[in-house]
TrEMBL record:
Cofactor names: pyridoxal 5'-phosphate
Protein family: Belongs to the group II decarboxylase family. Sphingosine-1-phosphate lyase subfamily.
Single biological process term from Gene Ontology: carboxylic acid metabolic process
Highest taxon above the source species: Bacteria
Gene3D superfamilies: Aspartate Aminotransferase, domain 1, Type I PLP-dependent aspartate aminotransferase-like (Major domain)
Pfam families: Pyridoxal_deC
Organism the protein comes from: Nocardioides terrae
Stored InterPro entries: GrpII_AminoAcid_Decarb, PyrdxlP-dep_de-COase, PyrdxlP-dep_Trfase, PyrdxlP-dep_Trfase_major, PyrdxlP-dep_Trfase_small
Species lineage: Bacteria, Bacillati, Actinomycetota, Actinomycetes, Propionibacteriales
Protein name listed in UniProt: Glutamate or tyrosine decarboxylase
Record keyword Phosphoprotein present: no
Keyword Lyase: yes
Keywords: Lyase, Pyridoxal phosphate
Modified residues (N6-(pyridoxal phosphate)lysine): 233
Length: 477
């Protein structure tokens, strides 16, 4: 138990000291930093002002409805939406994706076993939606350029298809799919086409205005029926908001849920949530109002300058290469045989740069992922210096060695048949068997853990990490 006489805000600050920094441009995953402290302050004040407001009933809190409609209108202008377009504020990209899939399913009640066609690079949120809503995900391999294969996706559409998905860009590799071809095939089949622009939706329009080459992907493309775009990414709003836009009200209507089948109030929801704080919406509205179109153009110029500098710096490292030339703000780095990507990640983290390792998948090698923000630009020279040092250190250290016997054991695991005791043993070997209550300390270096997970099948990775999360989430008494 904690000391009831202690100041909870002092304890909060002490707890937060162990977290990754959300400002400063050095955390290249999970957070998106404008580098504008005054704007951040506006967002925080707006969130606090509306923390007690409830978005469940827009007639009770009309200011929330006004802000939502204005935020959706802002996005419609960015994304070339027709006058018929409508939208909804959600809690994040995953909820936007879930609603896009649920709405497509419920629009076709006559299809007993609905399917959706997605590329192998589509965000995992679509697999989550498939799991939750009973929509089979038909996964189509991508081409050598890591973009969706439009012809193969068109060939995968059948009478049970309710949705076809494209990414702008895909998270893992940062490239925009051939949306025009994919949407055209979907339209020809009479099927909805959703563009997952959760990452790119608020920055790619400004990239185009800056004269950068951006493949067509917005509502200007015939056949695109819905788009998801996160405001808590490159709109630089506080965490907890995304937008799901539909070309028409008829396309959005199946997303809504209503129930009068009980003696209480008639439940009416536009999202998966019922009660929802007005804070995130107010924060997003305030930040977008404060930055404005010119501000976003300037922030886009900064982040793309950072991307270009990082890309040029990677080219100076013979052991590194780009997985694909980025269309947006995401950079995926591959390594040659002299360099272990997981060790490179550890070396960068040790130098104060948080980057994200991506495990190998379907014949693709493991990579290092960077999500750049506007606030990263002033620090790019420091990052490139750290990158050079990290490459040298990782080459000197050599690849992570996994005992051949252990490697064979991991490769042979059947996740479906593992017992809790076997999970505990595997977690212990991976160094993930710390204490309970959220105080589990990860190893200082994660390369051995990632190397072990990299040998496992995707199903085994999922099972091991679920077991790890289960052991983290235990009550503190």
């Amino acid at each position: 138990m904690t000391d009831p006489t202690s100041d909870p805000l002092d304890r909060l600050r002490a707890l937060q000291a162990a977290d990754l920094p959300v400002h400063g441009g050095r955390t290249l995953a999970y957070v998106y930093d404008s580098g504008l402290p005054d704007v951040d302050a506006i967002g925080r004040e707006a969130v606090a002002a509306y923390a007690g407001s409830n978005g469940l009933d827009p007639t009770a809190f009309p200011s929330l409805l006004r802000m939502e409609n204005e935020l959706v209108g802002y996005a419609c202008t960015l994304l070339d939406a027709p006058a018929t377009a409508v939208g909804t504020v959600t809690s994040g990209g995953t909820e936007s994706v879930l609603l896009a899939v649920q709405g497509a399913r419920d629009a076709c009640p006559e299809i007993a076993r609905p399917r959706m066609v997605i590329a192998s690079t589509a965000h995992a949120a679509f697999h989550k939606a498939a799991h939750y809503f009973g929509v089979e995900a038909v996964v189509v391999p991508v081409g050598a350029d890591f973009r969706a294969d439009a012809a193969a996706m068109a060939a995968a559409i059948d009478r049970s298809t309710v949705l076809v998905v494209a990414s702008a860009p895909s998270y893992a590799h940062g490239v925009v799919d051939p949306v025009a071809e994919i949407a055209g095939a979907a339209a020809a089949a009479g099927v909805r086409c959703h563009v997952d622009a959760c990452i790119g939706g608020w920055v790619l329009p400004f990239a185009a205005r800056l004269g950068r080459p951006v493949p067509p992907w917005t509502f200007a493309v015939d056949g695109v029926t819905s788009i998801s775009v996160d405001t808590h990414k490159y709109a630089y709003a506080p965490k907890g908001t995304s937008l799901l836009l539909h070309r028409t009200t008829a396309l959005r209507r199946p997303q809504y849920f209503a129930s009068a089948a009980w003696p209480g109030y008639t439940m009416l929801n536009s999202t998966l949530q019922s009660t929802k704080s007005g804070g995130p919406l107010a924060g997003a509205w305030a930040v977008t109002q404060a930055i404005g179109p010119d501000g976003y153009a300037a922030l886009a110029a900064q982040v793309f300058e950072a991307v270009d500098l990082v890309v040029a710096g990677i080219a100076q490292q013979p052991a590194l290469r780009l997985v694909a030339r980025p269309d947006s703000t995401l950079v995926a780095i591959a390594t040659d045989d002299s360099l272990d990507p997981f060790t490179l990640t550890d070396e960068l983290v040790a130098r104060g740069w948080y980057v994200q390792p991506q495990l190998s998948f379907a014949g693709l090698p493991a990579t290092v992922h960077l999500s750049l923000s506007a606030a990263t630009l002033p620090h790019v020279p420091d990052f490139l210096t750290a990158l050079g040092e990290a490459v040298a250190a990782a080459v000197a250290a050599g690849p992570v060695a996994v005992d051949p016997g252990v490697a064979g054991f991991v490769r042979s695991l059947d996740a479906a048949s593992l017992t809790d005791e076997e999970f505990d043993g595997l977690l212990a070997f991976a160094g993930l068997d710390g204490g309970a209550g959220g105080d589990t300390a990860l190893p200082d270096r994660m390369a051995p853990v990632n190397a072990l997970l990299d040998l496992a099948s995707p199903a085994t990775r999922e099972a091991v990490l679920v077991a790890f999360l289960d052991r983290l989430a235990r009550p503190t008494r």
